[in-house]
């Protein structure tokens, strides 16, 4: 019989809410805490504040098991053994650096509730050096609690599976006996994935913090690499999708994360590479990460290129053109619109005089709140009706499956821009569409 641990999850956003429900599913007794009363009320009622496949079911079954509850009161952490810090570290306004105010506030309000033998576990993505600084705070408070760093690698859209069956676990531990005690507790928490054979990397604080930003930097680099190749393909008439297939067969390279298109967005990759550059600068290692500035520029350039391509296929101008944008979320199977390339392109086109209508299977409500000046449609049919140009900017399955003939009946002109290389060009061209994509002839 596995031992049950009493667990606090502080911060019930994307990461925390999923982590809390998964910890309960693993058999632990979990309290999720957040300062946002509305979010806590929703979660406690079994409603997900965001779209995430599998999460609502898991949340409801965990609540029903009696092993999961939510609170806005940090005092609810008292008496638990393990306290996960899952609050956000957004990009600071006008700067590259991460804003640490939520981490610092959560830590300060947790400190009075810690006891001897407790373990604080950082999961948020933070500038390297944060764990050591927070460990000092825990020490100074004198409770006898310890601190570990345990970065989270979940992807939106696969958050539940990624948490229950992670690719690897990483522990950043203090030195000596404290490290041994912290490891034993974490092993207890993760007994199920560990016994399923999940690889474990045990490291110091700084390495564990760096694993997360290094992984995200590598992923961003892979995407911008293929998008840089797409730029060269556009200049030569080559096809970046075939190029990616061919180089991806080399197992040293691999095909995943080589999908050329509009590039990366979301709440992680863009802000994480910027915060990493900012932190490296503070540490005097900015030259080492100078390439990430280029990764960021390549990524942002794709958005501009998309608008240029729209102008090109519309005969030199998009002024007054009715444009249907399919996709608002930063990627499919998510309603997250943070740093969404699709919405950025839609807004640029509107600014340049096009009449833009955006649709998305899940993200329209979020998009409407963040970008109230754009026009929205509740369905693809409504969005494309009368359009002079259609753009697929988030590759939802519904758009991949669209029938060129049926869509063609609704539009004013059969012009398709595939911003994600998600459609079959031959199929759309056969139905009389002008089909253009990034990195393809
Ligand atoms: C990412 C990391 O994958 C995850 O490990 C980390 O914990 C958080 O950040 P996420 O932000 O959910 O996860 O999205 P991801 O699936 O990585 O996609 C990021 C962006 O890259 C999306 O906008 C996606 O459309 C884009 N992308 C991805 C590409 O443009 N091409 C690809 O080949 C892959």
Automatic annotation (TrEMBL):
<dbReference type="InterPro" id="IPR036220">
    <property type="entry name" value="UDP-Glc/GDP-Man_DH_C_sf"/>
</dbReference>
<comment type="function">
    <text>Catalyzes the conversion of UDP-glucose into UDP-glucuronate, one of the precursors of teichuronic acid.</text>
</comment>
<dbReference type="Pfam" id="PF03720">
    <property type="entry name" value="UDPG_MGDP_dh_C"/>
</dbReference>
<feature type="binding site">
    <location>
        <position position="265"/>
    </location>
    <ligand>
        <name>substrate</name>
    </ligand>
</feature>
<dbReference type="InterPro" id="IPR014027">
    <property type="entry name" value="UDP-Glc/GDP-Man_DH_C"/>
</dbReference>
<dbReference type="Pfam" id="PF03721">
    <property type="entry name" value="UDPG_MGDP_dh_N"/>
</dbReference>
<feature type="binding site">
    <location>
        <position position="212"/>
    </location>
    <ligand>
        <name>substrate</name>
    </ligand>
</feature>
<dbReference type="GO" id="GO:0051287">
    <property type="term" value="F:NAD binding"/>
</dbReference>
<dbReference type="InterPro" id="IPR028357">
    <property type="entry name" value="UDPglc_DH_bac"/>
</dbReference>
<feature type="binding site">
    <location>
        <position position="271"/>
    </location>
    <ligand>
        <name>NAD(+)</name>
    </ligand>
</feature>
<comment type="pathway">
    <text>Nucleotide-sugar biosynthesis; UDP-alpha-D-glucuronate biosynthesis; UDP-alpha-D-glucuronate from UDP-alpha-D-glucose: step 1/1.</text>
</comment>
<feature type="binding site">
    <location>
        <position position="34"/>
    </location>
    <ligand>
        <name>NAD(+)</name>
    </ligand>
</feature>
<dbReference type="InterPro" id="IPR001732">
    <property type="entry name" value="UDP-Glc/GDP-Man_DH_N"/>
</dbReference>
<dbReference type="InterPro" id="IPR008927">
    <property type="entry name" value="6-PGluconate_DH-like_C_sf"/>
</dbReference>
<feature type="binding site">
    <location>
        <position position="338"/>
    </location>
    <ligand>
        <name>NAD(+)</name>
    </ligand>
</feature>
<feature type="domain" description="UDP-glucose/GDP-mannose dehydrogenase C-terminal">
    <location>
        <begin position="324"/>
        <end position="425"/>
    </location>
</feature>
<keyword id="KW-0520">NAD</keyword>
<feature type="active site" description="Nucleophile">
    <location>
        <position position="268"/>
    </location>
</feature>
<dbReference type="InterPro" id="IPR014026">
    <property type="entry name" value="UDP-Glc/GDP-Man_DH_dimer"/>
</dbReference>
<dbReference type="GO" id="GO:0000271">
    <property type="term" value="P:polysaccharide biosynthetic process"/>
</dbReference>
<comment type="similarity">
    <text>Belongs to the UDP-glucose/GDP-mannose dehydrogenase family.</text>
</comment>
<feature type="signal peptide">
    <location>
        <begin position="1"/>
        <end position="20"/>
    </location>
</feature>
<feature type="binding site">
    <location>
        <position position="125"/>
    </location>
    <ligand>
        <name>NAD(+)</name>
    </ligand>
</feature>
<dbReference type="InterPro" id="IPR036291">
    <property type="entry name" value="NAD(P)-bd_dom_sf"/>
</dbReference>
<dbReference type="Pfam" id="PF00984">
    <property type="entry name" value="UDPG_MGDP_dh"/>
</dbReference>
<keyword id="KW-0560">Oxidoreductase</keyword>
<dbReference type="InterPro" id="IPR017476">
    <property type="entry name" value="UDP-Glc/GDP-Man"/>
</dbReference>
<keyword id="KW-0732">Signal</keyword>
<feature type="binding site">
    <location>
        <position position="39"/>
    </location>
    <ligand>
        <name>NAD(+)</name>
    </ligand>
</feature>
<feature type="binding site">
    <location>
        <begin position="257"/>
        <end position="261"/>
    </location>
    <ligand>
        <name>substrate</name>
    </ligand>
</feature>
<protein>
    <recommendedName>
        <fullName>UDP-glucose 6-dehydrogenase</fullName>
        <ecNumber>1.1.1.22</ecNumber>
    </recommendedName>
</protein>
<feature type="binding site">
    <location>
        <position position="156"/>
    </location>
    <ligand>
        <name>NAD(+)</name>
    </ligand>
</feature>
<feature type="binding site">
    <location>
        <begin position="153"/>
        <end position="156"/>
    </location>
    <ligand>
        <name>substrate</name>
    </ligand>
</feature>
<feature type="binding site">
    <location>
        <position position="331"/>
    </location>
    <ligand>
        <name>substrate</name>
    </ligand>
</feature>
<feature type="binding site">
    <location>
        <position position="89"/>
    </location>
    <ligand>
        <name>NAD(+)</name>
    </ligand>
</feature>
<dbReference type="GO" id="GO:0003979">
    <property type="term" value="F:UDP-glucose 6-dehydrogenase activity"/>
</dbReference>
């Amino acid at each position: 019989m596995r031992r049950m641990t009493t667990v606090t999850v502080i911060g019930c956003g994307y990461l925390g809410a999923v982590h809390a429900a998964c910890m309960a599913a693993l058999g632990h007794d979990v309290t999720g805490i957040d300062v946002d009363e509305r979010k806590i009320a929703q979660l406690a009622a079994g409603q997900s504040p965001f779209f995430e496949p599998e999460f609502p079911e898991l949340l409801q079954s965990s609540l029903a098991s009696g092993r999961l509850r939510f609170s806005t009161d940090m005092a609810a952490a008292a008496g638990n053994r393990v306290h996960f810090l899952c609050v956000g570290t957004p990009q600071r306004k006008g700067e590259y650096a991460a804003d640490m105010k939520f981490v610092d506030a959560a830590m300060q309000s947790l400190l009075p509730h810690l006891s001897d033998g407790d373990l604080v576990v950082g999961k948020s993505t933070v500038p390297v050096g944060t764990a050591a600084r927070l460990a000092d705070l825990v020490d100074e408070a004198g409770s006898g609690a310890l601190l570990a760093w345990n970065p989270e690698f979940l992807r939106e859209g696969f958050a539940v599976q990624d948490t229950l069956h992670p690719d690897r676990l990483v522990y950043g531990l203090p030195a000596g006996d404290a490290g041994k005690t912290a490891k034993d507790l974490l092993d207890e928490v993760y007994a199920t994935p560990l016994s399923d054979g999940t690889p474990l990397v045990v490291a110091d604080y700084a390495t564990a913090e760096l694993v997360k930003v290094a992984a995200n930097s590598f992923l961003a680099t892979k995407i911008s690499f293929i998008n840089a190749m797409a730029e060269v393909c556009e200049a030569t008439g080559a096809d970046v999708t075939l190029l990616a297939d061919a180089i991806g067969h080399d197992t040293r390279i691999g095909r995943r994360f080589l999908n050329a298109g509009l590039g990366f967005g979301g709440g992680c990759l863009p802000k994480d590479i910027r915060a990493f550059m900012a932190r490296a600068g503070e540490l005097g290692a900015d030259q080492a990460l100078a390439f990430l500035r280029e990764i960021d520029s390549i990524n942002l350039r794709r958005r501009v290129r998309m608008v240029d391509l729209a102008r090109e296929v519309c005969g030199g101008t998009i002024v007054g053109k009715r444009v249907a944008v399919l996709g608002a979320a930063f990627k499919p199977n998510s309603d997250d619109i943070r740093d969404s390339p699709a919405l950025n392109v839609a807004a640029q086109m509107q600014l340049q005089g096009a009449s833009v209508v955006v649709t998305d299977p899940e993200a329209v409500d979020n998009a409407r709140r963040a970008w109230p000046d754009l026009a929205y449609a509740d369905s693809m049919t409504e969005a494309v009706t009368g359009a002079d140009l259609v753009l697929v900017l988030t590759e939802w399955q519904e758009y991949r499956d669209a029938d060129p003939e049926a869509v063609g009946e609704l539009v004013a002109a059969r012009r398709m821009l595939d911003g994600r290389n998600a459609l079959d060009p031959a199929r759309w061209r056969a139905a009389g569409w002008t089909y253009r994509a990034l990195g393809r002839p």
